[in-house]
Design brief:
Layout: E1 4-8, E2 11-15, E3 20-22, E4 50-52, E5 61-68, E6 76-85, E7 90-91, E8 101-102, E9 123-132, H1 144-151, E10 155-165
Antiparallel strand pairs: 1-2, 3-4, 4-7, 5-6, 5-9, 6-8, 9-10
Length: about 170
């Protein structure tokens, strides 16, 4: 059984109900393994396919943030997607999920930018999906900071999957 760390209005709990259910972008097919080269700066740099289970009751929209906590300058955001339809259960390779809008990543660009660590030890890449209690009306091109501030107090649950990549 897969478990996800969930935040229910600030109360942390474990849940088996809201999880990433498919992680085909890992080399061995399991979370925590190496991310396939196709989804990195050394490959096609295309967003990976993902799937997830139903979010908790009351979810009005979803948001996805992909961060590298091992970046030399600290937490570095590779992708932010918000306004994802609550009914969405995933996305295809290189496509946004239903209703999704992309924000500005820490590269200063709109959209997905895959793992691209400096040479050395592999970095972790954390894909976090948030279930929100409000429908998102933020404009396309919002920054990750704006999105995180707007999500404050509106997160019903979250689920994460982590992969690694090194050069």
């Amino acid at each position: 059984m897969q478990w996800a760390l969930t935040s229910l209005k600030g109360l942390l709990m474990a849940t088996a109900s809201f999880v990433f259910t498919s992680t085909p972008f890992f080399s061995g097919g399991q979370p925590g393994e190496r991310i396939e080269k196709e989804f990195t700066c050394q490959g096609a740099d295309v967003s990976p396919p993902m799937a997830w289970s139903a979010p908790p009751a009351g979810t009005q929209s979803l948001a996805l943030i992909v961060d590298d906590p091992d970046a030399p300058g600290g937490l570095f955001t590779h992708w932010v997607v918000y306004g994802i339809a609550a009914e969405s259960r995933g996305m295809r390779k290189g496509q946004l999920p239903s209703g999704g809008s992309e924000g500005i990543n820490d590269f200063g660009t709109l959209g997905y930018r895959g793992p691209c660590p400096p040479p050395g030890a592999p970095h972790r890449y954390v894909f976090t999906l948030y279930a929100l209690d409000e429908a998102v009306t933020w404009p396309p091109g919002s920054t990750v900071g704006e999105i995180k501030r707007a999500m404050g107090g509106h997160t019903l649950a979250r689920t994460q999957v982590t992969g690694t990549y090194g050069r």
